[in-house]
Amino acid sequence: MPMTGSCHCGKITYTLDEDAPANAMACNCSICRRKGYLLHFSTPDKFTLHGSRDDIQAYTFNSHTIRHQFCKTCGCAPFGEGEGPNGPAVMINLRCAADVDLDALAITHFDGASR
């Protein structure tokens, strides 16, 4: 069943053509640590953005390989886009996904601070 998510105000919504994951990644890099992301990685062909990209602002840092996308109105960051180890990737912030039981997720910790 497709997974959906949004920013707080609802201007940024998406559908991901995948079932909700059982696993998530918690990264300790400077932005993920500050924002508290729990991430799920997918591919752009499974991701559909609803609404206008005009409502989105991107933030990049360090190697600029990931565009952290956030809503210009409410500031929530429901997803990111960029290059993963296997090519183009979409990073879903599971804290902004609907119907995901965050307490049931198996969390893998990634040491992004050392990269």
Automatic annotation (TrEMBL):
The keyword Transmembrane helix does not apply. It holds the Pfam family GFA. Keywords: Metal-binding, Zinc. The keyword ATP-binding does not apply. GO terms for molecular function: carbon-sulfur lyase activity; metal ion binding. Residues 3-111 form the CENP-V/GFA domain. Belongs to the Gfa family. This is GFA family protein. It comes from Allosphingosinicella flava.
